[in-house]
Amino acid sequence: MKHSTNQQTRRGRGPARRIGRSLALVLPVVLVLSGTLAVTRVNWSGNPSNSVLTASEASVSDAKPRSVSRAPQDVLRDQLLAELHRENPGAALTHLQQAVNGRPSLARHCASIARALGRAAVLAYGPTRAQSYARPVCDTSFATGVAAAHS
Q1: CA distances from 5 to 11, 13, 14, 16 (A)
Q2: Whole-model pTM above 0.90?
Q3: What are the tens digits of pLDDT across the range 6-31?
Q4: What three-state secondary structure class fits 108?
Q5: How deeply is 14 buried, as exposed, middle or buried, from its count of CB atoms within 10 A (0-12, 13-18, 19+)?
Q6: Rounded distance between C-alpha atoms, residue 148 and residue 146, angstroms
Q7: Alpha carbon distance 89, 125 (integer Å)
Q8: pLDDT digits (tens, 9 = 90+) for 86-102
Q9: What is the DSSP-derived secondary structure letter of residue 150?
Q10: Which of 130, 128, 126, 129 is nearest to 117 (CA)?
Q11: If DSSP codes are grouped into helix, strand and coil, which group holds residue 47?
């Protein structure tokens, strides 16, 4: 009787053992594939409009021009240069001082923006008239820009 009990026990474990071995081989493959697919579905670009980007779409999206957010000092400089041409350098310098007072993080860019305004003023108004708008905004950087553009 012992012999028949061992046979039944082996037979009972036989199919379970085969299923277990099959799972041991197949399960890691399934986990790796599902992990790979999950990684390709994650929005790595940081752009919420492309919330689902698959690996096959990556080359297509790289071909599109991306909108690059501009630094606040660059935006301010461009606005002030436009204002300089619309109105006069005095108005642009006043708004530069107000922007720096309102947003202290722009203070380190004030001198370079003022120099750019000085160079643009020389081109638009000539060196003598541009110099007449000079005032001590950002450590006289406007006057430095005027002088650099004139020489």
Answers
A1: 10, 12, 14, 17
A2: no
A3: 555 555 567 878 888 877 777 777 77
A4: helix
A5: exposed
A6: 6
A7: 9
A8: 999 999 999 999 999 99
A9: H
A10: 130
A11: coil
Question: Which two three-digit tokens encode residue 29?
Answer: 């493959």
Query: What is the DSSP annotation of 48-107?
Result: GGG----GGGHHHHHHSPPPPPPPHHHHHHHHHHHHHHHS-HHHHHHHHHHHHHH-GGGH
* Cα-based distances in Å from 111 to 19, 58, 69, 75: 74, 41, 22, 15
Instruction: Give the amino acid at 136.
Output: P
Please give the structure tokens belonging to residue 51: 């919330």
- CA 144/CA 39 separation, integer angstroms: 53
